[in-house]
Amino acid sequence: MRYLTIIIALSALCFLACKNESNVIESTTEKTDINSVYIKTVPVEKVQESSHISAIGIIYSESEAKPSFKTGGVISKTYVKEGDMVKQGQLLATLLMDEINAQVQQAEEGLIKSERDMNRLKNLYSDSVATLEQYQNTKTAYEVAKRSVEIARFNRNYSEVRSPISGKVVKHIMRSGEVVGPGTPIYAIMGIGDKDWIIKAGLVDRDWARVKVGDKAEIQMDAYPGQLFDGAITNKTSVGGNASGTFDVEIRFKKQPINLAAGLTTKLSVNTKQNDSFLVIPVESLVRSNGNIGTAFTVENGKAKKLNLTIAKLMGDKVSISRGLDGVKEIVTTGAMYLEEGDKVIIQ
Predict the structure, then answer these.
(1) Is the CB of residue 282 less than 8 Å from the CB of residue 42?
(2) Does pTM top 0.85 for this prediction?
């Protein structure tokens, strides 16, 4: 009897336990939808764009020249060498003049003959022996010979090379005894005056659009550690000049260092007058992207809503968005890769 009582009590306890567990399972099932996707969201950030643009610049000489002969020939003598300082108009090289002088003499002799023929035909035409056409032809030949003499004398005058600028000879290209053609450079000369130095920096298209001529720039140079130099943007190129896709701007010193050389590097900080704001989301929230077009998700009424976004630029682990986030306060991060339009979501 005693054992029967114990067995009945244990059976009652098991029944009550199973009933409670069944109620818990039913309650959990009622609250949880197995079709929902667990996600995490973060707020959309609004970032104020910095008014400073950093860039690397290279120092160039704005005044460069590669003087050459107007006519071809054999170089007679060169008068300067690499490293020499030259002044504007200084004689740099001459040609052997034998052939050129012969061409001038030939043209002058032809002019004398043409003048003699013209005068003879003029007298014959006055005596009605020669026709007007014959006289006009000799007169035309005289004018042609006259212009030939002018060309020959002009070429003789330019059978020497003079420096078009004041500066330093950085390269001696052609030397005495070499045959040179018209327009072939003999020297490369670089201006090194205070007004000749400029800084060129390549900017991405976004930064290039933000800067304006006249914007101030701070200049740092490894050649002058610890010193800051003031400058300003003086020119913006209208054409991309290299394969990197950057656009050049030119900066001039307001008060430049005493010693400069072409090729020195500078660190620039340009203070722009344009200061924009933009919206930023984590890179991981983009489920797909193609160029400047991307896709992400937000939550609306407990369901996933697909967003088509226009990407402005990448910012490390974040990305700025120029279009597609109007009215959106939160963006899905974790779980975004598994979402489709209209999916039920549970925010963790």
Answers:
(1) yes
(2) no
